[in-house]
Amino acid sequence: MAASRPWPRRLVRGASSSEAQGGIVARRRQSSRGGSSGRDDLDERVVDINRVVTVVKGGRRFGFRVVVVVGDNHGRVGAGVGKARGVPAAIRKAAERARRNIESVVLSGTTIPHEVEGRCGGARVMLKPAAPGAGVIAGGGARAVLEAAGVRDVLTKSLGSANVLNLVRATMDGLRQMRRVADVAKERGVPEVDVMPFWSRGR
Fold first, then answer.
1. Beta-carbon-side half-sphere exposure of residue 64 (alpha carbons within 13 Å)
2. Which end of the chain has the lower number of beta carbons within 10 A, N or C?
């Protein structure tokens, strides 16, 4: 019986081993769309590449599950999951599904309008607005989703499971709950300035 060969470390073509181990590979891809707009430029990020095994009658089949986040950095973001026998095919499937799932989210300048908590399964992600210049204080899947959506200043904290896929979905759930400051102020019956973060009230 021939000796088994070690599994290759480099999972994504063109990415260094440190990038592959980090789990996030970002790239820009242009794709054609119908209509007069011609082409769009979206930020595509490979968040997680995981090897999976399916047990069948003849033995075990190896494949890959890839999580991809796509956004335009201006308030539109989507996430998708792809599975295939090879990494390139799985990335392509995940990217196509992420583009089909892309949706608009409410932003307030470079941050989010208000504090919110997103949930998915055992994962919980708390999102809080941050002052300009604070940066994206997040890691893993949450950072990829927020940066692809165009958020530049935000504070986050993971309160539950560390599963990457659930973290991505929990972050997406939190962004879906975002509402405009004017709508929140109208619902509460208070001036908009009372709802705004303190650093933007004097503007």
1. 20
2. N
CA-wise closest residue to 70 among 37, 96, 33, 39: 96
Closest CA to 94 of 151, 45, 22, 26: 45
Location of structure tokens 């809080």: 128
Q: How far does Cα 21 stand from its chain's mean position?
A: 18
User: Which segments of the chain are extended strands (E)?
Assistant: 25-32, 39-56, 59-71, 76-84, 103-104, 116-120, 123-129, 136-137, 154-158
In the chain, how many H helices and how many E strands?
5, 9
Q: Say which residue the tokens 């979905």 belong to.
A: 169
| β-strands 136-137, 154-158 pairing | parallel
d(CA 85, CA 52): 9
The SS3 call for residue 91 is: helix
Note whether 45 and 23 are within 8 A (CB).
no
Phi, psi of 141 (to 5 degrees): -65, -35
**CATH class (in words) of the domain with range 116-200:** alpha beta
- Give 60's Cβ-side CA count (13 Å radius): 5
Residue ranges per domain, the chain?
Answer: 17-104, 116-200
Give residue-wise pLDDT tens across range 90-145: 999 999 999 999 999 998 888 898 888 999 989 999 999 988 888 999 988 899 99
